[in-house]
Each structure stands twice: as C-alpha cells, then as structure tokens.
Amino acid sequence: MRITWLGHSSFRIEIGGQVLLIDPWLNGNPMLPEDSHASATEGATHILVTHAHFDHIADALPLARRLAVPVVGQYDLMSFWAEKEAIETIGFNKGGTVDLGGVKVTMVHATHSTSIATPEGPQVTGSECGYMIAGEGRVIYVSGDTDVMADMKVFNDLHRPDIGILCAGGLYTMDMARAAYAAKTFFDFKVVIPCHYRTFPALEQSAAALVEALPGVRVIAPEVMEAIEP
Length: 230
Prior knowledge:
By secondary structure, the chain is of the alpha/beta class.
C-alpha cells in the first residue's frame, strides 16, 4: 500500500492492485507542481470524490476523460455527471459498499456542505460524504470535509479503520484540535494523516498540535508527492 499526498485534500492511494485518486485538484492547486501532474495520476483506475466543491472536483472530469476511468461517488452527483458530461460513473450512497476490483469502498456520512458550479449558478447536487477503503487487510478512513460527529463511533464499530486521513485545517472543516479529539474519542487509529491544511494562509499550517495530542499514534505530516507506506 502506498498513500501519496497531492496537496490539499487530493491523494493517490495504491491498494489491492488499484490506484485511486481521491478528490483530484491538480490545476490551480498551489501545493502541487505542474511537472508532477503526470506522475500523480499515472495508472489511475478510479477517481473518488467526496463532494462537489471546486477544490475537490476541479480535475475529476478531465481526468476521467483522459484516463478513461470511472468517477465514484454519491449517487445524485454521479447521475448528474453521467447525463450531462457523458462520463463513466459509479454512483452509490451512504451505507452502501462497492467493490472496485478487490478494494471495497463504503460511503459514510460527513457534515459539511456541497454545491457545484453550473452556467445557471451554484447547484446543490447530492451531499457530502467520506469513505472507508478496505484492501490488503487494512481499512483507510477518508473523512472528506467534515466536523467531528458522534457518527464516527459507529464508523469505528463497523469498520475498525487503522488509518485515518483526516481534514484538519480549520475554517471550512475541523481543525487540528478537533481532528485529534475525533481520533482519540471515536477511533483506534495506528496511523493518522492530516489534510486540507497548509494550502492557504487562512488554514492551519502545522500538524504539531495533532502530533502532540495523539501519543502512541503514528501521525504523519505528509509532504507533497512523497509516498507513505503505512
């Protein structure tokens, strides 16, 4: 298994023979150099999106077309794209699980907001979500954009994720302190990787508070395009 941060909330996850691109934002992403775009997406088999804000879907459609791979996500958004954009999609909903060739992905709840830009203005299409990604005997929780939720206890009871990819930048999502609270209170992670931080000055710039709050957990402050083997 290899997890590579592409900056902000974008990840490349190589697991179970599949290559998953999570919330791909390449063009305009201030953290990802343009000369890294090709290697970041090479060999991708699926694109997963957690919600429709621009910083999570900006490159989902062009990548789906260029790489000829399906976009996986919440049913309403996937149905909208399948009809309007003529791309291959896999749409499902919270509590549902899809098998992506041996890697099982379960959609779970998140609490945030979502809208997609259209020529007629912003349009709410579906709802925000997170994912449990199971493969190679491991389970990764991708929180998507969210605050702390009591639902997270249910997620842990049902899925027992050992790796947490948690939004932690504050302002738009939970911050480092709230992410630490979520990890300590509801989960038993072995590895935690923060994201949705450092991108803009308004977001948290350091994961030090998360590291300090989670003794005994391997908290990895990721570097862009440096693969993590958790």
